[in-house]
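Changelog-adjacent note: as of this version, every example in the card shows the full chain rather than a window. The one below runs 115 residues end to end.
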Amino acid sequence: QVQFVESGGGLVQPGGSLRLSCAASGSIFSIYAMGWYRQAPGKQREWVASITRGGTPTYADSVKGRFTISRDNGKNSMYLQMNSLKPEDTAVYYCNLRPVLGVAWGQGTQVTVSS
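Full-length structure tokens:
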């Protein structure tokens, strides 16, 4: 059973940066593509970025050029470097497989962009 633990969120001013981390338990991490997702208050969860098991990234248009996804299969970990943050990036950020394939969501990490 795979479980995910997200960390690294916080309060940051517009234009600032944060680096999120995702730690995965279980031995299947290196087999699957992984993704970052976010859910803003009152909105549905949305996909942000994904990375294949070989390291090829894909980004939603809203974050392209500002966010960078990476993974370390040896550490069962994935990261999201977020630069030039905007108030509309405020959300709870989650990691999971891409596609999700029914794996349970973790608790996420809150990112708040505000002056």
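Structural remarks: The CA atoms of residues 30 and 49 lie 17 Å apart.
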